[in-house]
Amino acid sequence: MKDVRILAIETSCDETSMAIVKNGKEVESLTILTQMDTHANFGGVVPEIASRMHTENITMVLDETLRKAHAKIEDLDAIAVTYAPGLLGSLLVGVECAKTLSLVYKKPLIAVNHTMGHIYANNIESDIVYPTLALIVSGGHTDLLILKSETEMESLGSTIDDSIGEVYDKVARVLGMPYPGGPQIEKASLKGEDTYELPHPMQEEGYNFSFSGLKSYIINLVHNERQRKNEIRINDLAKSFQIVAVDELTRKVKYALQKTGIKNFILAGGVSANKYLRSEMAKLCDEMNVSFHVPNMIYCTDNAAMIGCAAYPLYQAKKFSDFTLNAKSSEDIKSYIEKELK
Amino acid sequence: MNTLYIDTHDKKIVFAYYQNEKLIRKKEREENQDHSRICISTLEEFLKEIKKTIQDIQDIVVVSGPGLFTGVRLGVTIAKTLAYTLNIPIRSLTSLECFLPVKEEVKYLAMKEKNGYFLGKLNYNRTQIEEYQYITKEEYQKQTNCIEKEEINYEELIHFAHQKEPLNPHQVNPFYVKKIEVEE
What we know:
The structure holds 2 protein chains of 2 kinds. By secondary structure, chain A is α/β, with parallel strands linked by helices. Chain A is 46% helix and 19% strand.
């Protein structure tokens, strides 16, 4: 079979990234230009600044990506781009660049859902074995799905309020840690003890997640303690928070694995870079005799290689977009599955 | 020399095609939907209408703003991606420079925006803009020696643009003028 090489573009948040991916697996080149240092000055991603930086850097990232693979766009098979979900202004820069390339080189344009990218990142270093349970955890998502086959998925549940990544960032902020909060919480928790009693979210059965109760509890706790001029044991609180938050995730995954009897599990999304979460999930899978997959760190956070992977089945199914493709800031995975895969 | 002109700084998007600075055709489109849906499809239609291909384009002139933030970004992204991939010269113009030269004896050229005006300070013979600023409607009311223009001379504009040195596509960036909250 002829090799399929896709140029993929990802600009959904604060990383300008492009990649060339062969056959949905082999990463020929990957460039990730992160704006993290800039946004850290403001305590979080400033959407307008993110869009501006994408525009400034887009052709340089393209140039670098092509040079690293010694590739010419005319020799590639398609242009793939993240069109949803994410920051609208940021997504638009990638989408417009992709359309321009598609127009110049007469290559098919493939619109990729960012969350699907996180799932397909698991195809890079191993192969997704179907059926598999997948948990996507990131700044915008907390989704639990069953991947039945390459084209068949079922959404089990997702967060009913804040995503896990958002909660990490907000808890980090109230504890006075710089953005991005996830790695800071993790670092602090290693130095702490689990001495805070925190409420466990949503005790009832089911697959939906809720983190806002936990978040509000911590924010109130910190404010009250500060008002009473009591010391806040930041490292301990980070540790207790992380234990409860991750427990919520593992509990739901365990329940889903038991109910469905599925023997494969994928962890994906930016928060899957969290080492404690990885080790707890690995432990759970080990206990349940389930094969556990999580992408290499570089493919967990936002990157275009995963977009190239997710574009491959769409290429084969000839699911191409025309030039009226628009970016969308939100598109939950459930409606995406209903629209695209059914 | 075949020049493509791209202007998306406003609700109305404009593509124009020139041969040796002579305007061959221009296409305007104004719709109450997102620029992103219509920009590239309009460009594709336009080239078809004038029976040209994207490879016929030999240089690009893009309006870099000020204007709608997202609008300007789309035009600039398209223009720099075209210039980079086609390996052709690119020049940028500000949305106020499109009205040069100003015949009236004034010091300032103004362009209306949603909540205020972009103001350009003209040089002595009103052929260049020396400084840009954003002012509120109230400030504009008090502004004297100022003119707001509507008519663009498209051939004059391309001649003006070609006086400039071409830019490296990587260095072509939007010109916002207006500050955003976090910058203030």
